[in-house]
Amino acid sequence: MDLTIFLLAVFDGVAYAALVFIVALGLTLIFGVMRILNVAHGSLYAIGAYVTVSLVAWAVAAGAAPVLAFPLMIVSAILVGVALGGPIEWLLLRRIYDKPEVLQLLVTFAVFMILEDVQRLVWGTQPYFQSTALMTLGNVTVFGVTYTVYQLILLPLIALVLLIGMRVFLRHTVVGKLILATTEDREAAQSIGIDADKVFLLTFVLGAVLAGLGGALASPTTSILPGMGADMIVLSFAVVATAGLGQIEGAALTALMLGLGRSFAVYLWPEVSVLVPYVIMIVVLSFRPQGLFSTPAARKI
């Protein structure tokens, strides 16, 4: 492998890992607080991409400046979180928190299937592509390799800001401390006056916003088509499971490891590139069933 291919593999891997981490961050936040594996997270990611493409295409057609594509990504993510995440938690999940985990998983899977059909009804089955944000930032040359600024700098920077911002939010803000208190012991938190229902609603909306943001940020780099949410949710689950459920910093390092592994496989052995992240997950879980960054917990009987 020459230096050019090596650098391309590293750049591809870092950009891909940034997107996967943003989606996995929402997933691990929801599980860490609510103990629910939200399969519908993949559909929220896909809808975030669809909404972004639609809004940016409308704005560009109306003569708006291309740089408007960036705030529209944030608008799309918030729309997904508020318009879909809020009702899902309030109308469905709130009623099954005390039910078996299998039922919770089936309910989120049903929501995923419904939202997949909604995507086909609203946007059809033809792929969409909108590269306005990608073209606006242009390219940069590093060690003779030309790469897009959007993927090489912006995506990793946003992922890093979200990682640090989430840690600061949870540990140094009142709302974050309420979330952590509810995570540790919901009954004890309620006994001291914390409204656990509002904490859960806020957490789920925040996680849905992160899923939508992941889709919005992915939209300039890939074709938007039905099924993209399923691919991302499976990979996000692999990241969360490999890192350990509820491990935010671990999810960042694991996403980077899986992203680089997949990227190098694309250049060296493309036939197995799709399998590489899952092979890494299986190997890790074979030796550390609790994940790379989790510690075994005592089981209550």
Structural summary, described in words:
The chain is an all-alpha fold and 301 residues long. Helices cover 73% and strands 3% of the residues. The protein contains twelve helices and two strands. It has helices at 3-34, 41-61, 69-92, 101-123, 132-137, 149-172, 174-184, 186-191, 196-218, 228-243, 248-268, 276-287; strands at residues 139-142, 145-148. The chain has a two-stranded antiparallel ribbon with strand order 1-2. A hairpin with a 2-residue loop joins strand 1 (139-142) and strand 2. Helix 1 (3-34) packs parallel to helix 6, helix 1 packs antiparallel against helix 9 (196-218) and helix 2 runs antiparallel to helix 3 (69-92). The termini are far apart. The relative contact order is 0.20.
The topology string of helices and strands comes to: HHHHHEEHHHHHHH
- Widest β-sheet, arrangement of strands: 1-2
Shape summary: globular
Quick check: average pLDDT? Answer: 86
Strand fraction band? under 5%
Radius of gyration: 19 Å
Structural class: mainly alpha
Number of helices: 12
**How many strand elements?**
2
Q: Detail the poorly predicted runs.
A: none
Largest sheet: 2 strands, antiparallel
Q: Main traits of this protein?
A:
mainly alpha, 12 helices, two-stranded antiparallel ribbon, 3% strand
